[in-house]
Design a protein that fits this description.
Blueprint lengths: L4 H12 L23 H9 L2 H7 L3 H4 L14 E3 L6 E4 L5 E3 L1 E3 L4 E3 L9 E3 L2 H9 L2 H16 L8 H13 L4 H9 L2 H4 L3
Antiparallel strand pairs: 1-4, 2-3, 5-6
């Protein structure tokens, strides 16, 4: 029933930008404070900006917060409803509650693309997605995940030629994922797998 910018940011960091975020230490109680008058972003920043937390959160939060323009169902929004009983201001004709809202700050920062022209501040998720789509790191990360799926294992040093060929097939075909799959399934890594 709510969004989770930390999980979204971690997914972008690990799946698209080939990064790594450590697991939550067992000594940390990862709870966002309940404040019925603040947005999720403000409540999240109040706890994750602590020095011991920010070491990991700096690689997730700036990537996940731009997605706050989408609610938990993926619908576009510009305001966050404060869905608590004391913020109820009325009811719609269809019986749905109407709550006070606050404007969403969807700014963030893209880091880790390997391209200084792509890295930097972003206005929202759409801006960030457009930049990630141009990233060599993201393209190679997606190809690596496809390799792992179709081979049923992680890549090894001996698979480097297979990954290079799949990347070349993608670029030569003008961005066809089908060409990546054909390249992977006709490679020695697939044909001679154990």
């Amino acid at each position: 029933t709510h969004t989770d910018p930390v999980i979204r940011g971690r997914w972008v960091r690990e799946k698209l930008l080939a990064g790594r975020v450590p697991d939550v230490p067992i000594t940390v109680d990862a709870q966002i404070p309940n404040d019925h008058h603040k947005t999720l972003r403000v409540r999240l920043e109040s706890v994750t900006r602590a020095k011991q937390c920010w070491k990991c959160h700096e690689s997730m939060n700036p990537l996940g917060l731009p997605f706050e323009i989408f609610d938990d169902f993926g619908r576009y929004r510009t305001e966050e409803p404060l869905e608590y009983p004391e913020n109820l201001i009325g009811k719609k004709n269809n019986g749905y509650n109407i709550y006070k809202t606050l404007k969403i700050d969807s700014s963030g920062e893209l880091t880790g693309t390997g391209d200084p022209f792509l890295d930097g501040e972003v206005t929202d998720a759409i801006d960030m997605i457009g930049r990630i789509a141009k990233s060599d790191v993201a393209r190679q990360s997606i190809i690596r995940h496809a390799f792992r799926f179709y081979m049923g294992r992680n890549e090894m040093l001996s698979d480097s030629q297979t990954l290079i060929a799949a990347d070349k097939a993608y670029l030569d075909s003008g961005g066809s994922f089908k060409a990546v799959i054909v390249s992977l399934l006709t490679s020695d890594s697939f044909i001679y797998r154990k």
